Here is the input.
Amino acid sequence: MASEGIPGRDTLSAMKVSELRQLCSDHGLLVSGKKHELVDRLLGREAPPVETPKVVAESKSEDIDDAIDKLIARVSGDEPAEPEPELEPEPEPEEVVIEAEIIEDEIADFKDAEPEGIEEENEPEPPEEDPWFSGVIPSEATDEMFLEDDEDEEPSMIITLPSVDGLKENWQAISAIAVVVLLVGAIAFYLVQQDPAFTARPLRYGDQMDFTVTETTIEITGDEMIGILRDITTPTLDEVCDELRATVSGGTGSISIRNGGIGDISHPLDAELIGAVNAHDAHGREHLTAEQTVTHNLAIDLQGKVRNEGVCTNTGWIKEDNSLVSSSKSWRDIASKSTIRTDTDLSFTDPDNVRTDARAVAFGSNGLGSLGTLSPLLIFPLTPIELHEFFGDTPLTEGLSSVKASGLMDWTWTVQGEINTAMHGLVTHVSISEEGLAGCVGHVNIDIHVKRGNPWPVKQMVDILLDKEGGEDCSLEGLISDYLLDLPDGTLAVNAVITETSSNFGSTPVHWDTTYAGSPSSGEDIPNSQQHWEEAMPDESSLREFDLEAAVDCLLANHSSSDAAEALESAGYIWQATYTANEWNMSWVDDDENAGWVVLRVKDSGCILVEQREYDEGTVSWDRNEIPETLTLGLMEERVLDPLRYPELNQFISDGSGWEPSVSYGYLLATTSVDVLSLDMVTAAGTRSWGDSGRDNTVGFAIDAETGRMVGWYHTSLPSD
Here is the structure.
């Protein structure tokens, strides 16, 4: 019997599925099922109960930034492409089923996300599965190629969007990490620099030190670890395998704290804080910061083993006289001392004068994940330790020994005493070793020479071994599973020496722990208009007429017999979608855990179904309880296209009134649980690739769709093939 106030069958049948579900909810009825089941339920003709999908309940982290900081960032070198059910999946230790998510191990590296042509065939072969925005197919073909009845026609091009983890991996790999792995790579920088403690004296605006880089080698064994390098330095290391040695045959560097002027401070009440510099944070808000710049100019010789017809041999390979020039700027809020932004530029030139340029911008000190946890560490050997941050105000007297605990890291340091050196005169020798994390993956030993009045060591000697199988005494089993499980197999050994050649010191101490008038409040300019999902993430774009709501309505109205439409009619939803030039690619899952994707393109007053495919069984699990509330795609695009919020990114993606036409923009719902950590995450991301003056350029960015926080962006420029 129909509940009181329920309209008749004809009226119900004319309603949308979302309206029927809302009506069921209003009357205390179940909201799952196909349209006719919802109508029958409202009319009192309930179908026999069916087993409901298992819901995985995980508590959401109260602090999503902290969760991102701790979350494992998987390392992947896969090529992003379209779904291809016929391809054999890569071997995994065990079968893993994701819940409306992409397994991080399978998230593709998007640094080569350049369109690829697809040949037309009578029996089109689906492209390779792309876990992030699979089936993103902006086409340059004419409309005649995609008539309504010609659903088997292949689209002409494939472009994939990056995932959050893809972006993370690119920042590590293509920016500071390209520097790092070749020059420096191991695990000390983060552990030391994130360890607030001591200094010979606090930093001053205008402090600057020049240094040389000598006796520096990096030895890598194991093809999996070398594979990271291979992917990020292509074509330089394309054929290298199993063993690689990099020697810095000569190099110089510098570290400095900028002494800003009155023009670097925007708020008039902060004029007395001369020296500080305005910088934008992840939400595009301005902070007063201390700006630090670290530069390197290095000559690098490379040697190792090479492949022969795909097989690694003992054949030697040598490539001398490579050049790497890098500059990394970071900004730390003067009130909180937290890093709000890091901006790294590098240029790598091989002996054939082939140059690779890259820039990566990351917001905050979190969000770079497990090898991401290691990524900032990697530049430590060639970055002088900030003494006051490590030792605080502790007097360095001979024989003094202490253990500095920092989270899971235990730093033991001992003052060996004063020594008289030919270059720097009387210095204090301090030995530092890490006996927590390092015991699980090798060792980190650091010796420094400290000279009175210097904010950095005048000499720094680093000995690092990284090998996840090499720890002899590790009681941090949880750490291994949470952070280090997905480190690549193999070993990384680093020895580095940096020596001061000259210094200049400022006079005004950095205004640490100083509140300032222009500081944004905790919730200022942070959007809080999150919405529930229906069939998909809310879009509500004011810039794109064919927004996601229009695409879903057109799919249901004009292609109601498609698997995608039937899924949305039966409580299914779209867990990833991408927009490019009046075309939507949408990946769906229904309540029976069938999944697939479709591509819709605007045509006249409707839309045509360009392509549709199914995912392999078990690819995605249906669970509406795992979908968090999010901001709208429209709101986030307005923020990212604001020329004042992210001005340096804006120049690449905006045409002045909206998206540059070749930009792909969309979202991904990913659910990832790591031990006690649970993070339900929706990420908006975009990418653009173009050619210019014989070089291939790619720009990408990622935003946390629940908070509107920019995770980071990158720009690469490589020689065209």
